[in-house]
Amino acid sequence: MSTKKIDLTVKIWRQKNSNDKGRLETYTVKEVSTDSSFLEMLDLVNENLILEGKEPVAFDHDCREGICGMCGSVVNGEAHGPEAGTTLCQLHMRHFKNGETLVIEPWRAKAFPVLRDLVVDRSAFDRIISAGGYVSMNVGGAPDGNAIPVPKKTADLSMDAASCIGCGACVAACPNASAMLFVSAKVSQLALLPQGKAEGSARAKNMVEKMDEEGFGNCTNIGECEAACPKEINLTNIARLNREFFKSTLSE
Amino acid sequence: MLDGKIPSGPIAQKWDNHKMDLKLVNPANKRKFTIIVVGTGLAGGSAAASLAELGYNVLNFCIQDSPRRAHSIAAQGGINAAKNYPNDGDSIHRLFYDTVKGGDYRAREANVYRLAQVSNNIIDQCVAQGVPFAREYGGYLDNRSFGGAQVSRTFYARGQTGQQLLLGAYSSLMRQVNTGKVKLFTRREMLDLVVVGGKARGIIVRNLVSGELERYSADAVVIATGGYGNVYYLSTNAKACNVTAAWRAYKKGAFFANPCFTQIHPTCIPVHGESQSKLTLMSESLRNDGRVWVPKAKDDKRKASEIPENERDYYLERKYPSFGNLVPRDVASRNSKEQCDLGKGVGETKLAVYLDFADAIKRVGENVIREKYGNLFQMYEKITASNPYKESMMIYPAIHYTMGGLWVDYNLMSNLEGLFVLGEANFSDHGANRLGASALMQGLADGYFVIPYTIGGYLAGTKFDKVDTENDAFKEAESQAGERAKKLLSVNGKRTVDSFHKELGLLLWDKCGMARNEKGLLEAKKRIPEIRAEFWENVKVTGNANELNQDLEKAGRVADFLEFAEVLVHDALIRTESCGGHFREESQTAENEAKRDDENFSHVSAWEFKGTEATPVLHKEPLVFENVKLTQRSYK
Ligand SMILES: Cc1cc2nc3c(=O)[nH]c(=O)nc-3n(C[C@H](O)[C@H](O)[C@H](O)COP(=O)(O)OP(=O)(O)OC[C@H]3O[C@@H](n4cnc5c(N)ncnc54)[C@H](O)[C@@H]3O)c2cc1C
Ligand code: SF4
Ligand code: FES
User: Fold this and answer.
1) Considering the entire predicted model, what is its pTM?
2) A37 to chain B: which residues are within 8 Å by CB?
């Protein structure tokens, strides 16, 4: 760990609330430790702003270890910044150069309205899950955990899909602002497992319908979502979703 | 004396008998009751979902923008259950015994036994929900071992067990949102509990987007708001973790139990400098293969690889030959601190020790190590830019979990009627030290399998007056919350909220961290009110109350930490014994190990609020052990 300090110019999207038009504002931030994370750099910007009597930049964050899905901004045009497979909170400042200029903006999508600065409203994701992202069973009725064996390979594939953190980077990266990668991850996780199979196609249908209703765009197989996804959720999940969805149209 | 309302009868039958004795709410009447659940973590999420499944109307609140982001999401290692699938001698009784012993005999036997009993149902429930647990080649569930146990009873989903369990609870919850039985309120922060006629009947929350204060009334209030580790500023907890909800309930009359029981995890990534905002845990499973050491010489400036074998001190192996690197969390943490205090710490800050895999790699090969710990090594490298296959890892202890919390009886109800407390927010099951993989178990046990029964007993057996949000108690609580925000915004001083939080955290870490003594605790007790006073005179909080204002949110939480810290330190001062995570230097054996004082301290300390500047009043709940024999822990 060799620590260095760097100075940066940051252009950050400032928007007071969802009615405000918003604009980029420029700040300089000095002596950023290269061991600190991107969010710790934003902390420093904010400490300075507060001491100057200005309002700090609002940004979402919580776990700061890449698992809660709360953080996320577009840095120089890339969702979650330049490192592959990395959330903004796990991106470290050693990947930036002294004197560099960074442009930091919120997720842009019709279905994710900006609430303030870098904070957006992602509750559309919750509503999509609520439309069908579950196994319909109540507490109390479950058989023994080992009653139904699940091949290891299947369980592993399901786990890969289940790693989605619901951050919304896929939507932000997609030129159509489609939520297909997010939806397909949940549909795949459950469709792969015997426990989730029974409702597989109904789930796909209900979730996709909700997704459309919420104003997300269509999937035209561009693949930007996969490239931006910090959990490297695979495009094959979208193919699986399409199969489940197709089944639902057959059974009608 | 406090009554835990432990049912009579043999320990193995208490819960079944109690369930028979509890009154039931008939199915048609359930929809006439409204229950507030604050928190959507494992405890709150599972409780809200199960109560709605039963037919109650549930109002569910969380700080984050989605219930799926509660701090439970970050748990890595696993969840315990007494399934005994590996046929290695596990049983409900053994899980019970290990948990009571691991807690250094400061937990209530009956609660822990019930926890062990329902542990098996949790695994069944989660599998049925579609939680993708790790499996063996035959398709059956896999188990791993964790500290403090000699059997393999930990179920896991890669290094993301908390995430998968929480997403399971979240899916059940969202299904109930779809049926309309749960009304979800995200980006809301509970700022007060409303008590009417001696009963908890509602809450005041701040809408974190609009800034408006909102009132909600109900027949019972469930708090599942997690732990208070962030009082130390730097911890492995997520940034929004707070004591506010629990603290407000305490100020309304709920007792706060054992606040000094805090857990420090030995294997975290060391602090890098001033701008550090939180600490990252490295799973304790690493100690299965990693060897902990420091240089024998003080202030050794050489790189780890340049220090020859005979100039290294593998101090855990030297001092604890039978447990070696696998001593429990509290022992491992204290020893790292001791070495650093002796000037043998390593790295730039000198506050770190080595965790070395060179021997293990030589023994089994890099591939085997990669298979076991690959994702952890990757995370370590991402954060530190150092490759642990080549260079020794550096680790240091960090605040991780809080065993203390609001006092509850066997029904998980506070002394304040109608207030139930679940998960890390209560004090109930882990005594003075929690074993790995037991918090996830407790959160889900409380939410899926305990509260659905006990809250029914309360609702069926209680007469309720009609109370709505026009009641004076609501008006008053709301106006106080509003005044407080105004006051915070009007100080207009010279220091940021974070600077106060950091100052408080450092003080606690120094004086009430891994080792505590009377002198230090007295100093902290004197200093905390001074920091608090300066906070209210010199803090700078920007913006307005009627907008999304993260600075104001933080300020409110830090203001509560500044009050709570004093009770924490007071509790540590009064408990002159060492037990579990609470090490009082005055109470140690000849070999410098923790020495319990069962004669004087075999009780729960529950504190009653008497005013912010007044000393709280102590209520004791005696702990009676009928099923385990008390022994002094030794890992030599
Ligand atoms: C890094 C890490 C790893 C861990 N690994 C393990 C492990 O492997 N095994 C294990 O058993 N345990 C582990 N633990 C411990 C375990 O994760 C926690 O104890 C447990 O998840 C707590 O669950 P909870 O439901 O009580 O609270 P949380 O998950 O913390 O949920 C709290 C909820 O309350 C809400 N809330 C809080 N305050 C307010 C307020 N004022 N108003 C409104 N809402 C509020 C939050 O929004 C959130 O929804 C780990 C902990 C950490 C930090
Ligand atoms: S699919 Fe990837 S990018 Fe999209 S929400 Fe999930 S984790 Fe984020
Ligand atoms: S803050 Fe949780 S994923 Fe970044």
Assistant:
1) 0.97
2) 277
